[in-house]
Amino acid sequence: MKFNLKIFIICLIILYGNLFSQDTIIKSFSGTGVQNTRPFLVENGWEIQWDAKGDIFQLFLYTSKGELVGVAANQQGPGKGASFQAKKGHYYLQVNAIDKWTINIVQTNELISNSSNAKGQTKINYSEVFIVAGKGWGKVSLGIEKKIIESDIGEGQERSQFEEVYFIDYPAVGIQCSYNTKDNTLRAIFFYNRQHGYENFETFQGKTDHGIDWSSTPEQVIKAYGKPKEEYIRVGWR
Q: Strand, coil or helix: what is 167?
């Protein structure tokens, strides 16, 4: 029987490629309402996939030691969604939801180097990560250590420093962060859209969990968040 080496090599490449690229479900969870999942262990490059039936579905990602990593989901209304996570570790999820939900923890087997650009900044999927009032923006969450934040968005540039707080610029992402000097945890986030003095920043491309972005009108902001406590009006801005 003749052996066709070319066909064998092609078949082997296809088989190897399919095996390598195949996603693997590490853990599956289901429930109703508020619940903490059991801890799970993942390698670099994994994803949280969910299917929620209720009007509210929020996911908060924690390390196994109880440290908040960030907000993985903040979905308004029923439906499916996913949130890619780059860093390996031992985690659990806190679910805040109405009605039934299912969650799959998936090892994607994707190369992590493909998720970073030439400047070392992580490419953010802005359609999946929202600004949440009182919490933050994805892994850039209040109270999180600087080293954890920069493992996600890349190393920043020093701006200024004071006794209790210091400021770091992340121009490729369009944000500036202030950190507490005492413990290097995130204190506040500032989002930019070519404001004076920050023209070197890329325009931040995200939006809030209420759908507000740079294109929103004052009326849309008030409808989403209510009447402001104070209003400031200057030439060219409000």
A: strand
Say which residue the tokens 């994607």 belong to.
108
Strands (E), the chain: 24-32, 35-36, 40-42, 46-52, 56-63, 68-76, 79-85, 89-97, 100-107, 131-132, 136-137, 140-141, 157-161, 165-170, 175-180, 186-191
Give pairs for 204-211: CB < 8 Å, separation 24+.
Answer: 204/173, 204/174, 204/175, 205/124, 205/126, 205/174, 206/124, 206/126, 206/129, 206/130, 206/131, 206/137, 207/126, 207/130, 207/131, 208/130, 208/131, 208/132, 208/133, 209/74, 209/76, 209/130, 209/131, 209/132
User: What's the pLDDT tens digit per position in 138-166?
Assistant: 889 999 999 999 888 888 999 888 889 99
Its pTM surpasses 0.85: no
Between 125 and 29, the higher pLDDT residue = 29
